[in-house]
Design a protein that fits this description.
single chain, alpha/beta
Length: 160
């Protein structure tokens, strides 16, 4: 069996959207990404930290279309990793201030995560990882992730 290199990461996601400007505004204003390039009125690329793009958005096959049914196969969510609790709290604060409906939140032991959807119904997770030495482990040393409630008020109190 082949194995991916330990240093491999997931580079970007490219989403079909129905309204490019609405989606650009969401990923820019809620998630905090920066537009790095546009292809006319049909596509845009956004990133954090100067990378060429973490998110590609296009309307090539989906302009004006309604979201697909939730129970159909497809992308469950795209996850955005924030570097610390304060920046995650700030992102949550932005989302709430812009009227984004929070659909869920969880403490997974290894991470703290908040869930909502973008304007086209694509699932979004914003999260922060705990230090690896703090991850919960079972008796054999394997991961023992949990799904406990996350105190959003405490997280908001730590917002930058």
């Amino acid at each position: 069996m082949s194995k991916a290199p330990d240093a491999m990461t997931i580079g970007h996601v490219h989403l079909k959207v129905s309204d490019l400007e609405r989606s650009v505004a969401f990923y820019r204003d809620v998630i905090g990404l920066t537009v790095t390039q546009r292809y006319g009125t049909d596509a845009a690329f956004l990133s954090a930290g100067g990378y060429h793009h973490h998110v590609g958005l296009n309307t090539w096959m989906s302009k004006g279309a309604a979201p697909g049914p939730k129970r159909h196969p497809g992308l469950f969510h795209t996850a955005f990793l924030f570097p610390d609790r304060a920046s995650l709290g700030a992102a949550l604060k932005r989302a709430i201030s812009l009227g984004v409906e929070i659909e869920g939140a969880a403490d997974h032991g290894v991470s703290e995560a908040i869930y909502f959807s973008d304007p086209d119904g694509n699932g979004i997770e914003i999260y922060r990882d705990r230090a690896e030495q703090d991850w919960p482990r079972n008796a054999e040393g394997g991961l023992d992730m949990i799904n406990a409630p996350l105190d959003l008020d405490a997280l908001l109190a730590e917002a930058e």
